Amino acid sequence: MAKSLHDRWLILAGITPESIRLGDDLVARWSEPHRRYHTLDHLTRVLDAVDEFGGYADDLTAVRYAAWFHDAVYDSGEASTDNEELSAQLAEQELPALHVPAERIAEVGRLVRLTKGHAVALDDHNGAVLCDADLTILGSSAHDYATYAQAIRHEYAEFPDDLFRPGRAAVLRGLLELPALFRTPKAVERYEERARANLAAEIAELEADPATPKA
Hints:
By secondary structure, the protein is mainly alpha-helical. The chain has helices at residues 3-13, 17-30, 40-53, 60-69, 83-94, 102-114, 125-135, 142-155, 161-176, 185-207. The protein is 64% helix and 0% strand. It is globular and about 55 Å long.
């Protein structure tokens, strides 16, 4: 486990043989070779953002656990099922061994499932922090956003353009149709406007006729 992530996990989960085993397992999952965006870099970015927005949470510990588990199961292939549901189930199966209270485990599972559509209720402070942290890439610079979009395309490389492009556009359009992409004050101020511009630009590119040369 990379030292910075190793330290963060042990501070969160405690230093026990079971927590060390689980931490190593999670890092191994995030390091799977088929991943191009949902990698340790993404996990680190989400954890950093949770730290930044965490003052808004009601249970920051639950949010941090949810960040570690939210893409722990990630399969983009045609045979893939519900990654968020499987990741939530993994958390619910593993966290009792760390003596995490049942109420907190239930909250972790709920938060992981919430990342499927990022539709957060107005009074859901924990959900706001996790989902904002997960989506900060959407409000990044045009260059970083393009790198992210390319990595997503690589993760779905087995799908031809005529399947990937409309599917990806539908996902992005669903995000744009949310009342707000971000909910915590810091994230709204920093990312909302740019994220909407990035999403709209990618949708336009996905829906353009690929046979038409760019200007």
